[in-house]
Amino acid sequence: MREITNAPPTSTCPEPDVWTRLAAGLLSPAEAEPLAQHASTCNDCGPLLHQASLDFATDTTSEEDAFVSQLKSSRSGWQRNLALRMAEQSAPQASKPEPPKPKVPTPSRASVSWFPGWMRGAAPVAAVLLIAISFWFWTANSRALASTNMLIAQAYSEHRSLQMRLPGTNYAALRQQRGSTSSRLDLPSSLLEAEAQVQRHLNRNPDSPEWLHTNAKIQLLEGNDQAAIEALTKARSARPTDAAIALDLATAYSERAASTGDPTGDATALQLLNEILSRDPRNPVARFNRALVLERTQSYPQVIADWQQYIQLDPNSGWSIEAQQHLDDATRRLTGR
User: Fold this and answer.
1) Tens of pLDDT along 249-266?
2) Which segments of 203-246 are extended strands (E)?
3) CA separation for the pair 312, 305 (Å, rounded)
4) Nearest-angstrom CA–CA distance, 182 and 50
5) Does the pLDDT of residue 112 top 90, yes or no?
Protein backbone atom coordinates (compact mmCIF):
# COMPACT_ATOMS: atom_id res chain seq x y z
CA MET A 1 0.00 0.00 0.00
CA ARG A 2 1.06 3.55 -0.69
CA GLU A 3 2.13 5.93 2.03
CA ILE A 4 -0.07 8.93 2.63
CA THR A 5 1.32 12.03 0.99
CA ASN A 6 -0.19 14.91 2.88
CA ALA A 7 -0.06 18.16 0.99
CA PRO A 8 0.36 21.60 2.56
CA PRO A 9 -2.46 24.16 2.29
CA THR A 10 -2.87 25.52 -1.23
CA SER A 11 -5.01 28.02 -3.06
CA THR A 12 -7.34 25.14 -3.96
CA CYS A 13 -8.33 24.60 -0.32
CA PRO A 14 -11.97 25.59 0.29
CA GLU A 15 -13.05 28.15 2.84
CA PRO A 16 -12.97 26.78 6.43
CA ASP A 17 -16.74 27.08 6.86
CA VAL A 18 -17.22 24.52 4.08
CA TRP A 19 -16.11 21.77 6.48
CA THR A 20 -18.78 22.79 8.99
CA ARG A 21 -21.42 22.62 6.27
CA LEU A 22 -20.12 19.22 5.17
CA ALA A 23 -20.21 17.80 8.70
CA ALA A 24 -23.66 19.32 9.27
CA GLY A 25 -25.02 17.43 6.26
CA LEU A 26 -25.83 20.55 4.21
CA LEU A 27 -24.03 19.37 1.07
CA SER A 28 -25.15 16.79 -1.43
CA PRO A 29 -23.09 13.59 -1.92
CA ALA A 30 -21.83 14.99 -5.25
CA GLU A 31 -20.47 18.03 -3.42
CA ALA A 32 -19.24 16.07 -0.40
CA GLU A 33 -17.16 13.40 -2.16
CA PRO A 34 -14.46 15.64 -3.74
CA LEU A 35 -14.21 17.70 -0.57
CA ALA A 36 -13.63 14.64 1.62
CA GLN A 37 -11.08 13.28 -0.86
CA HIS A 38 -9.23 16.61 -0.69
CA ALA A 39 -9.31 16.58 3.12
CA SER A 40 -7.77 13.11 3.21
CA THR A 41 -4.49 14.43 1.75
CA CYS A 42 -4.38 17.99 3.08
CA ASN A 43 -2.63 18.78 6.39
CA ASP A 44 -4.74 21.90 6.84
CA CYS A 45 -8.21 20.75 5.77
CA GLY A 46 -8.11 17.24 7.24
CA PRO A 47 -8.08 18.41 10.87
CA LEU A 48 -10.80 20.97 10.10
CA LEU A 49 -13.12 18.26 8.79
CA HIS A 50 -12.26 16.00 11.71
CA GLN A 51 -13.07 18.72 14.27
CA ALA A 52 -16.27 19.70 12.48
CA SER A 53 -17.36 16.06 12.48
CA LEU A 54 -16.78 15.86 16.24
CA ASP A 55 -18.77 19.06 16.76
CA PHE A 56 -21.79 17.54 15.06
CA ALA A 57 -21.42 14.03 16.53
CA THR A 58 -24.58 14.20 18.63
CA ASP A 59 -27.02 11.42 19.25
CA THR A 60 -30.12 11.03 17.10
CA THR A 61 -33.49 10.09 18.50
CA SER A 62 -34.84 6.56 18.37
CA GLU A 63 -37.50 7.78 15.93
CA GLU A 64 -34.84 9.16 13.59
CA ASP A 65 -32.79 5.95 13.82
CA ALA A 66 -35.88 3.91 13.01
CA PHE A 67 -36.64 6.09 10.02
CA VAL A 68 -33.16 5.78 8.50
CA SER A 69 -33.50 2.01 8.33
CA GLN A 70 -36.14 2.60 5.66
CA LEU A 71 -33.74 4.53 3.42
CA LYS A 72 -31.76 3.06 0.58
CA SER A 73 -28.66 4.98 1.65
CA SER A 74 -28.64 3.32 5.08
CA ARG A 75 -28.29 -0.22 3.76
CA SER A 76 -24.86 -1.72 4.22
CA GLY A 77 -24.68 -3.07 0.67
CA TRP A 78 -25.40 0.35 -0.80
CA GLN A 79 -22.79 2.01 1.42
CA ARG A 80 -20.22 -0.73 0.65
CA ASN A 81 -20.72 -0.25 -3.08
CA LEU A 82 -20.25 3.50 -2.65
CA ALA A 83 -17.01 2.98 -0.72
CA LEU A 84 -15.68 0.51 -3.31
CA ARG A 85 -16.48 2.90 -6.13
CA MET A 86 -14.68 5.75 -4.36
CA ALA A 87 -11.69 3.55 -3.66
CA GLU A 88 -11.45 2.60 -7.32
CA GLN A 89 -11.62 6.24 -8.32
CA SER A 90 -8.89 7.27 -5.89
CA ALA A 91 -6.57 4.30 -6.60
CA PRO A 92 -3.71 4.78 -9.12
CA GLN A 93 -4.40 3.51 -12.66
CA ALA A 94 -1.81 0.97 -13.81
CA SER A 95 -2.48 1.66 -17.49
CA LYS A 96 -1.58 5.34 -17.12
CA PRO A 97 1.84 5.74 -15.43
CA GLU A 98 2.19 9.02 -13.65
CA PRO A 99 5.01 11.39 -14.63
CA PRO A 100 7.86 11.75 -12.11
CA LYS A 101 6.99 14.05 -9.24
CA PRO A 102 9.37 16.10 -7.10
CA LYS A 103 10.10 14.56 -3.74
CA VAL A 104 7.96 15.87 -0.93
CA PRO A 105 9.35 15.83 2.61
CA THR A 106 7.74 13.21 4.79
CA PRO A 107 5.20 14.92 7.06
CA SER A 108 5.85 14.91 10.74
CA ARG A 109 3.88 12.61 13.00
CA ALA A 110 2.08 15.64 14.42
CA SER A 111 0.91 16.76 10.97
CA VAL A 112 -1.09 13.55 10.51
CA SER A 113 -1.95 12.91 14.13
CA TRP A 114 -5.62 13.55 13.45
CA PHE A 115 -5.65 10.20 11.57
CA PRO A 116 -5.95 7.11 13.80
CA GLY A 117 -2.76 5.07 13.48
CA TRP A 118 -4.43 2.23 11.60
CA MET A 119 -5.55 4.69 8.89
CA ARG A 120 -2.01 5.68 7.92
CA GLY A 121 -1.58 3.05 5.25
CA ALA A 122 -3.05 4.19 1.99
CA ALA A 123 -4.56 7.40 0.70
CA PRO A 124 -7.54 5.61 -0.91
CA VAL A 125 -8.43 3.98 2.39
CA ALA A 126 -8.18 7.28 4.22
CA ALA A 127 -10.28 9.01 1.59
CA VAL A 128 -12.97 6.35 1.74
CA LEU A 129 -13.09 6.47 5.53
CA LEU A 130 -13.32 10.24 5.61
CA ILE A 131 -16.01 10.20 2.95
CA ALA A 132 -17.88 7.52 4.88
CA ILE A 133 -17.76 9.65 8.04
CA SER A 134 -18.93 12.74 6.18
CA PHE A 135 -21.58 10.76 4.36
CA TRP A 136 -22.88 9.42 7.68
CA PHE A 137 -23.41 12.94 8.94
CA TRP A 138 -25.13 13.90 5.68
CA THR A 139 -27.36 10.82 5.96
CA ALA A 140 -28.14 11.50 9.63
CA ASN A 141 -29.20 15.05 8.81
CA SER A 142 -31.26 13.87 5.83
CA ARG A 143 -33.08 11.22 7.83
CA ALA A 144 -33.82 13.69 10.62
CA LEU A 145 -35.24 16.15 8.08
CA ALA A 146 -37.32 13.45 6.44
CA SER A 147 -38.77 12.17 9.71
CA THR A 148 -39.55 15.70 10.89
CA ASN A 149 -41.24 16.63 7.62
CA MET A 150 -43.30 13.45 7.83
CA LEU A 151 -44.56 14.60 11.22
CA ILE A 152 -45.46 18.00 9.78
CA ALA A 153 -47.29 16.38 6.85
CA GLN A 154 -49.17 14.20 9.33
CA ALA A 155 -50.18 17.24 11.37
CA TYR A 156 -51.33 19.06 8.21
CA SER A 157 -53.50 16.12 7.15
CA GLU A 158 -54.95 15.46 10.60
CA HIS A 159 -55.83 19.09 11.36
CA ARG A 160 -55.66 21.02 8.10
CA SER A 161 -55.90 24.70 8.95
CA LEU A 162 -54.35 26.14 5.79
CA GLN A 163 -56.38 26.57 2.63
CA MET A 164 -53.17 26.71 0.62
CA ARG A 165 -51.16 23.58 -0.06
CA LEU A 166 -47.80 22.68 1.43
CA PRO A 167 -45.53 20.63 -0.87
CA GLY A 168 -45.32 16.98 0.09
CA THR A 169 -48.62 16.77 1.98
CA ASN A 170 -51.57 14.50 1.23
CA TYR A 171 -55.08 15.80 0.67
CA ALA A 172 -57.24 16.55 3.67
CA ALA A 173 -60.43 18.56 3.98
CA LEU A 174 -60.13 21.98 5.59
CA ARG A 175 -61.22 21.38 9.19
CA GLN A 176 -60.44 24.46 11.25
CA GLN A 177 -59.08 27.97 11.06
CA ARG A 178 -55.55 28.67 12.19
CA GLY A 179 -55.32 30.15 15.67
CA SER A 180 -58.62 28.61 16.72
CA THR A 181 -56.93 26.41 19.33
CA SER A 182 -57.03 27.89 22.82
CA SER A 183 -53.83 26.21 24.04
CA ARG A 184 -50.69 24.65 22.66
CA LEU A 185 -51.93 21.44 24.25
CA ASP A 186 -54.66 21.43 21.60
CA LEU A 187 -52.09 21.28 18.79
CA PRO A 188 -51.50 17.89 17.13
CA SER A 189 -48.91 15.82 18.99
CA SER A 190 -47.11 15.23 15.70
CA LEU A 191 -46.66 18.99 15.28
CA LEU A 192 -45.33 19.42 18.82
CA GLU A 193 -42.88 16.57 18.29
CA ALA A 194 -41.71 18.08 15.00
CA GLU A 195 -41.24 21.44 16.72
CA ALA A 196 -38.99 19.86 19.37
CA GLN A 197 -36.87 18.15 16.72
CA VAL A 198 -36.49 21.36 14.71
CA GLN A 199 -35.46 23.34 17.78
CA ARG A 200 -32.78 20.80 18.64
CA HIS A 201 -31.25 20.96 15.16
CA LEU A 202 -31.48 24.75 14.89
CA ASN A 203 -29.70 25.07 18.23
CA ARG A 204 -26.77 23.23 16.65
CA ASN A 205 -26.94 24.94 13.25
CA PRO A 206 -29.14 28.07 13.26
CA ASP A 207 -28.28 28.96 9.63
CA SER A 208 -29.29 25.65 8.05
CA PRO A 209 -31.67 26.50 5.17
CA GLU A 210 -33.26 23.07 5.36
CA TRP A 211 -34.09 23.36 9.06
CA LEU A 212 -35.15 27.00 8.71
CA HIS A 213 -37.57 25.89 5.99
CA THR A 214 -38.88 23.05 8.14
CA ASN A 215 -39.34 25.40 11.08
CA ALA A 216 -41.26 27.84 8.86
CA LYS A 217 -43.79 25.15 7.95
CA ILE A 218 -44.46 24.59 11.64
CA GLN A 219 -44.88 28.34 12.15
CA LEU A 220 -47.37 28.44 9.27
CA LEU A 221 -49.49 25.67 10.78
CA GLU A 222 -49.46 27.45 14.14
CA GLY A 223 -50.46 30.79 12.58
CA ASN A 224 -47.15 32.58 13.12
CA ASP A 225 -46.89 34.10 9.63
CA GLN A 226 -44.22 36.70 10.40
CA ALA A 227 -41.93 34.11 11.99
CA ALA A 228 -42.43 31.92 8.93
CA ILE A 229 -41.57 34.80 6.59
CA GLU A 230 -38.38 35.58 8.49
CA ALA A 231 -37.22 31.95 8.50
CA LEU A 232 -38.06 31.41 4.82
CA THR A 233 -36.40 34.67 3.75
CA LYS A 234 -33.20 33.57 5.48
CA ALA A 235 -33.44 30.09 3.95
CA ARG A 236 -34.06 31.52 0.49
CA SER A 237 -30.96 33.68 0.70
CA ALA A 238 -28.98 30.44 0.87
CA ARG A 239 -31.18 28.51 -1.60
CA PRO A 240 -32.47 31.16 -4.04
CA THR A 241 -33.59 28.63 -6.68
CA ASP A 242 -35.38 26.24 -4.29
CA ALA A 243 -38.99 26.13 -5.50
CA ALA A 244 -40.30 24.54 -2.29
CA ILE A 245 -38.93 27.40 -0.18
CA ALA A 246 -40.39 29.97 -2.57
CA LEU A 247 -43.77 28.18 -2.51
CA ASP A 248 -43.99 28.26 1.26
CA LEU A 249 -42.76 31.86 1.37
CA ALA A 250 -45.62 32.79 -0.97
CA THR A 251 -48.03 31.00 1.36
CA ALA A 252 -46.67 32.88 4.37
CA TYR A 253 -47.09 36.26 2.66
CA SER A 254 -50.60 35.37 1.48
CA GLU A 255 -51.70 34.14 4.90
CA ARG A 256 -50.36 37.29 6.51
CA ALA A 257 -52.32 39.36 3.98
CA ALA A 258 -55.49 37.41 4.78
CA SER A 259 -55.12 37.98 8.52
CA THR A 260 -54.07 41.65 8.37
CA GLY A 261 -55.89 42.88 5.26
CA ASP A 262 -52.61 44.15 3.77
CA PRO A 263 -52.79 43.65 -0.03
CA THR A 264 -49.02 43.91 -0.46
CA GLY A 265 -48.69 40.39 0.93
CA ASP A 266 -50.81 38.97 -1.88
CA ALA A 267 -48.78 40.97 -4.41
CA THR A 268 -45.54 39.46 -3.08
CA ALA A 269 -47.09 35.98 -3.05
CA LEU A 270 -48.20 36.36 -6.67
CA GLN A 271 -44.74 37.49 -7.72
CA LEU A 272 -43.16 34.41 -6.13
CA LEU A 273 -45.75 32.04 -7.60
CA ASN A 274 -45.44 33.62 -11.05
CA GLU A 275 -41.67 33.06 -10.95
CA ILE A 276 -42.13 29.40 -10.04
CA LEU A 277 -44.71 28.80 -12.77
CA SER A 278 -42.61 30.58 -15.39
CA ARG A 279 -39.89 27.99 -14.75
CA ASP A 280 -42.23 25.04 -14.15
CA PRO A 281 -45.75 25.57 -15.59
CA ARG A 282 -46.75 22.04 -14.54
CA ASN A 283 -46.09 22.59 -10.84
CA PRO A 284 -49.48 21.64 -9.36
CA VAL A 285 -48.92 23.12 -5.89
CA ALA A 286 -47.92 26.51 -7.32
CA ARG A 287 -50.90 26.43 -9.70
CA PHE A 288 -53.33 25.57 -6.87
CA ASN A 289 -51.96 28.23 -4.54
CA ARG A 290 -51.88 30.96 -7.19
CA ALA A 291 -55.54 30.35 -7.98
CA LEU A 292 -56.36 30.85 -4.30
CA VAL A 293 -54.40 34.12 -4.13
CA LEU A 294 -56.06 35.38 -7.32
CA GLU A 295 -59.48 34.68 -5.83
CA ARG A 296 -58.85 37.33 -3.19
CA THR A 297 -57.94 39.83 -5.92
CA GLN A 298 -61.17 38.90 -7.76
CA SER A 299 -59.27 38.33 -11.02
CA TYR A 300 -61.86 35.76 -12.05
CA PRO A 301 -60.83 35.11 -15.67
CA GLN A 302 -57.32 34.18 -14.50
CA VAL A 303 -58.73 32.33 -11.50
CA ILE A 304 -60.85 30.18 -13.83
CA ALA A 305 -57.87 29.55 -16.13
CA ASP A 306 -55.69 28.44 -13.21
CA TRP A 307 -58.31 26.08 -11.79
CA GLN A 308 -58.92 24.56 -15.21
CA GLN A 309 -55.20 23.99 -15.71
CA TYR A 310 -54.88 22.52 -12.24
CA ILE A 311 -57.63 19.99 -12.89
CA GLN A 312 -55.86 18.97 -16.09
CA LEU A 313 -52.65 18.39 -14.12
CA ASP A 314 -54.35 16.52 -11.28
CA PRO A 315 -57.73 15.12 -12.37
CA ASN A 316 -58.28 12.35 -9.83
CA SER A 317 -57.38 13.47 -6.31
CA GLY A 318 -59.14 15.13 -3.44
CA TRP A 319 -57.32 18.31 -4.40
CA SER A 320 -58.98 18.23 -7.85
CA ILE A 321 -62.44 17.90 -6.23
CA GLU A 322 -61.68 20.99 -4.15
CA ALA A 323 -60.37 22.77 -7.25
CA GLN A 324 -63.60 21.97 -9.12
CA GLN A 325 -65.61 23.53 -6.31
CA HIS A 326 -63.52 26.70 -6.55
CA LEU A 327 -63.86 26.68 -10.34
CA ASP A 328 -67.64 26.45 -10.14
CA ASP A 329 -67.75 29.30 -7.63
CA ALA A 330 -65.48 31.52 -9.75
CA THR A 331 -67.58 30.83 -12.85
CA ARG A 332 -70.80 31.84 -11.01
CA ARG A 333 -69.19 35.04 -9.78
CA LEU A 334 -67.92 35.93 -13.26
CA THR A 335 -71.17 35.17 -15.10
CA GLY A 336 -73.55 36.21 -12.32
CA ARG A 337 -75.28 32.82 -12.47
Assistant:
1) 999 999 999 999 888 999
2) none
3) 11
4) 48
5) no
